[in-house]
Fold these 2 entries.
Entry 1:
Amino acid sequence: MMHAPVSAPAVTGFRVRRESFRGIDALRFSNDAMQAVFALRGATLLDWRVRTDDGELGLTDGYRSAAELDAQNGVRNGILAPFQNRIAHARYCFDGVMHDLLPACGVGAREIYHGFARMLDFEPLLMTDGRDGAAAVLACEGIRPGVFPGYPFAISLRIRLALSAAGIALHISATNVGERDAPVTLGWHPYFRLGEGGIDALELKLPATERILTDARLIPLPGDAARASLGTRPEADFRAFRVLGGTVLDCCHGGNVAGADGLIRSVLRDPRSGHRLSVWQESGLVHVFTGDTLARDARRAIAIEPVDAPTDAFNREACAADIRLPPMASRTFSCGVDFLASSHRTQNAGTCS
């Protein structure tokens, strides 16, 4: 049963308000230096801007209208649940039962990816203002048996969105409210930019030691054949900052090394301004997509996607234990992104690492 949203008393600093943004039901998080707008459809980041000493800077490339949000091209900034990335041939076997996620599709059209949450409406349960940040807890009960072909499981989703002087934080929680075990993986599909200049001049640094090798359908190769050391794949090695240039990426990186703060951090940097974004996650893999096939504004932004499992995890024996969620059990995936201006500060905002 849904409860009416509860707002804490307004406090000078950060605030969160429900509004219509370009015709989309949304939440705006803001203070005097930063603002981020999330659609209630899919808890999807629509817009993120920050004031720097050089002026306002756009940090994401989100959907620009309700029609774009409905079309879901590029899966711009959506939450990924109960699976992320692709499932081979849209079929998987769980507890001895074969499930077909696209039962009406023929052989040539069997592509499914990034789960159902990105297309579902969330309801705010709590919105909180504060001096150091603003937060909202969103709920979705839309994943139930009979709603989505091939997924006869009941999953309750809770997402905590927060904006602070550092940046954006997300905590995605999935609870199995059904009576049998369910397969679940989680992630986020954000696109980032540092202004209007596109991504080719930007530098990327990843904490990965491995690349996940795939077939032509972007499905990982079987077993251990899927993992390749970056020592043998220099074209995919971003352990030191490299200019993206015309590099085309749509691949997953593993063997990620956490920093001193215990977080896995992928960093996007503009060498001209010095501004940078640090995409963090507590665990998992990092999928990178340079947006070359987007319907609009190809290579205007780069998707740096924190995910808790490899692509096609529902079909990988090595992932069987990790994807299993027993009845009434919950799984949480935490990730986010920090912004650091070249001056090490934003106007009226704090610093971040």
Entry 2:
Amino acid sequence: MAKPKKSSKKPAEKKPASEKKTTKPDKAEKTTVEKKPVVTAPVKQESCVKKFFAKKYDGNESILTIFKDKKIYGALLGEIFGTMIIALVILTLGLYQPLYTFFLLLATIVAVYKLSGANLNPINTAGMMATRRISVIRGVLYMLAQLVGAWLGVLIVSAFAKASGPDVELTGMTMVDATYYWVVTLTEFTGAAIVGFFFARAQQFKKSAFTFAAVAAGGVLAATVVVYLVLYNYFGLTGTFMMNPAIALMYQILPTSADTVGELLLEIGKALFTYVLFPMVGGVLGFYLSDVSSQLADEQ
């Protein structure tokens, strides 16, 4: 009878309890990792004054860089064409038809808004420069373009007026009498401040060209009505205001004759003061009033 073969495998030796594998922790029990608190540096808040006078345009724009971008040429053409249209309107209809002026100005602003922002008036450009919305070099170029546009408008209207007859005069502005010099000067200043305030407020609606144009043109309408009513109702004056230094200069508001050179220089200085300097200061004041109002209202 064959003997059963013994298996070569040795019986497993029992390990001592100390050598037994430790049981894995339950999956549900998650080890907590202590996170160190992250210390962030305090954010410095910009002062209201510094924010108020901060640049709102490309700081790298200068005389060396501005002409490298072809957009500046389109902007200047827009200012020339837009100001020319406004000069044509004012010198044909005058400022005695404020509703006609409003709608024509509305259409003109919408047409050139995407090109240059539709300043179309040195009053607005001076306010844009003073509040650092545009650079000085861009502002100067815009003003020169507005002068060219106003000159073209006066030239076109004058040509048609002369062709129609020698007795036809342009509808525009008459020279102010010395008796009412300060009355006209202050009304020009007041009207320019209204125009500047509305144009600054229109900057809040840049996304909509029509809304922007409506607010800006509404400012011109409001200024025209206020100035006309004051001058006509209280002093019986008509046609003594313009509220656009470019058109006033091209309309030959500066005197060309006097008894002496000294008197001529004095009259030129007074005309510049009334129709150029004071309106531009008024426009700057209107811009600052708008910005102060925005700060007080915490408007972004």
